């Protein structure tokens, strides 16, 4: 990790209720929701933030956090980070893509993909910002050293406290252990084997001792939109057994999801473009997720407000 601590951005709380259901955020465009339940009993969502066209994903420049205690009323916890706070980032800013957050030993770790150079696609780094709080006071600490230029970080902390880091895109998914400091990989990352048609958006969760790695694929049968697929394993690093599609495409070119249990119910977070009808102005959504008796996932039924 390169130690280049920068100033933090204090969150400004405001309430955003969503009595109409999906999309759960309607005042700004959000995508790539990574959901976690933290020790205060609330569910927190860490999405990326889409910005109005004519340009698209290059303009994504900041992160907000959302939280709820009932899956109905959502609180915008405010902005936690923007590209101007990243000293090693490309000078033009932008490209703050799909993030994740993890908690260990009293610290929250916010992981965000961001390029370090104008030639953005060859210079992706996974930045790490830390805080004592889940949704404010994050300070950039640097980025994870010694890994490839890939996007979409995911950090899974197992029951024994061991953290695993994943990232990937363009067909390659890599994973490995994190050291206790949560900012360095322990050894080399390895390719995740057994995933069928992997594109990006890795998410790992565990249920009844089984590890699930979910991801978006390259396209549906019409070659247009991502489907969400998953695979299972008895180990957090695979090899993985491909299990199928758990979510059909939305109206958006991309999809990116997370799966989490909250108050006894499992949920699938994802995004679509129903508010904008534009591929790069997306909106985060959530629907219930159910398992079959054998642990396979039933296809998620997407609902609208
Ligand atoms: O939001 C920017 C990128 O689009 C994400 O990193 C990908 O997963 C896709 O959703």
TrEMBL record:
Key word Signal present in the record? yes
Keyword tags: Carbohydrate metabolism, Glycosidase, Hydrolase, Polysaccharide degradation, Signal, Xylan degradation
**Does the entry feature the keyword Repeat, yes or no?**
no
Against Gene3D superfamilies, the record matches this protein to: Glycosyl hydrolase domain, family 43
* Domain of life, source organism: Bacteria
Q: Name one Pfam family in it.
A: Glyco_hydro_43
PANTHER family for the chain: ENDO-1,4-BETA-XYLANASE, PUTATIVE (AFU_ORTHOLOGUE AFUA_2G04480)-RELATED
Family note: Belongs to the glycosyl hydrolase 43 family.
* Protein's UniProt name: Family 43 glycosylhydrolase
Species source reads: Pinibacter soli
